[in-house]
C-alpha cells in the first residue's frame, strides 16, 4: 500500500466511537463534512457513552480552532495533539479540513439522507483536490457499500483493534510436547513447598509463555502446570491443584474438564487480581465464578461480599422506567445469576427449609449493581463479577476495572460470539482488548473455555444449528 499523503474522511460513528480518532492518522489529512458536524450536534445531549464522545469531539475541534490563531480555516487546522491527551500512536502531522462549500442542491444523490450528503461532500472534495487519494473511514457497512459503488475507497476504523485476527487471541493454556522433560533435563531444578511441587528451568526460544499461563501434556502424562514466575530466560512452573474430584469440590462444584480446572485454580489464587473467562454458552463461566466467590466469601472470609454486574443490551441507558430499587431493576438482566444460584444451593443439605435459609444468607452477601452508577465508586475487599463483558467498549471496561480498591478481585465473563452492541466486533470488544493487554501482567490470568457442559441437547444444538 502506498504511503503517499491521503485525505481521510471520518464518518460520525467513528468519532462517537473514539473521539481521539482525529489524531490517529499520522501524516495524513482528516476531512469532516458538514453533515458529520450536524450529527455530532444532534447526538451531544444525554449521558450515554456516545453523547459524551460527541461532546469531547466538539471540545477537541474548538481547541484546534483556538490554537489556529489568525490562520484561515479554509487552509485547515494543524492537528496538534492537546497536552491532556496521551496516545501511544505517533504524533499526527496532518491537517484537519472542513467542508466550507455546500454541495449543489439536487446534485449527487440528493440531500435527504445524511449518508448521501456525506458522499456528495466526498465527491466534491475529490474534484477539488485532484490527484490526492480520498478515503472514507466509517464503521457503517452500508455507507462503505455506497462509497464503493461510487468508486470511493472505504475502510473500517481499525485503530482500536486489539488484534487483526480473533483466532490469534491468547487462550491462556498451551500443550507441551512429550519431549519437554528430556529437553530441559540439564537445566531443571525441582522442589516441594507447602504441599506444592515447583520446577525451575531455562526457557527455550520457542517457549513464548506468559505469567499464569497453564501448560499441560496430552495423553497418559496428565500433569498440569502453571507459569508462576518469568525472570528473563528463567521460569518457575508449579503443579496446579486438581478440582475434578468431590473431595476438592469448590462450594459443591467440581471441574468437568481441563479448562474448568485451570479456571478454578486461577479464581482461587489470591495473588491473581484479574481473571477473564471466555467461552460459548454452557461452558460454566458464571457457575465457576460464583462458586469460587462463595467459597472465598462465606468460608474463607477473604472477601466481604460478591458484587455482580453485567452489560445490559442497552449499555449505559437509563433503567429508571423499571419499578423498584436498583437491585430490583437489574433483576430482569440477572437470570444467569438466579439459575446458577439454584444449582449451588441445591448441593446444600437440609431440605427446602435449609435451602431457603441458605438462599437468604447468600442474598445478603451477593449484591446486584447496575453498570450505570459505577463511575466514582471504589470497591474494597469485594469479589466483582462482570458478566456479558463482550458488550463493553475498551473505555467502559477501563471505567469498571479502575473501581478496584485494595483486596478486590475482578472477574470478566463473556462470549464474543454474542456481541449485541452496535459497532463492536470480536476484535474491538473491550473483553478481547483486556485479554490481550493483561496477558503480560503477573497478577492476571485468562482461560478460554471450549467444552459446553450443560447437556447433550445444548451441546448438539450449538454444533448443529
Automatic annotation (TrEMBL):
It holds the Pfam family PIN_4. One of its GO terms (cellular component) is cytosol. Signal peptide: none annotated. GO terms for molecular function: ATP binding. Keywords: ATP-binding, Nucleotide-binding. InterPro entries: P-loop_NTPase, PhoH, PhoH2-like, PIN-like_dom_sf, PIN_dom. Residues 6-145 form the PIN domain. It comes from the Bacteria. The keyword Transmembrane does not apply. In the N-terminal section; belongs to the PINc/VapC protein family. Belongs to the PhoH family. This is PhoH family protein. It comes from Pseudomarimonas arenosa.
